[in-house]
Specification:
mainly alpha
Length: 123
Amino acid sequence: MDQFSEQVRRGVEVVQQVSEELSQIIQHVQALTPNFENVSEGMQSQSVGAQQISDSLSQLSEGSRQTVESLRQIKLGHCAAKRSGARIARRRCALHDSRIKKLCSFWFSDWGMTGTLSKPHRL
């Protein structure tokens, strides 16, 4: 019977020791719970921030695409205006040349000179 009592006492000691260790483990887990909640909230904030960054990059990409398209349209307009301006300038030069030729031929005919402007005449 002494041996049985000793085994029961040892069993009780083991159960108490295991119970104390489990109690400490539970306390540590309970102490860590707020940390896990903080980590979870931080991860949610990072997820929201990452989504905002993604949205901003999408808007930036769209804005860049529109800017490139606008610049392309401006360049096309500039090139068209330049070509149109060159045509107008050529027309103006041709108009001025014809007016100068008419004016010069009028003056030369009044002075009794004939020919073209490229050939100088002697008096």
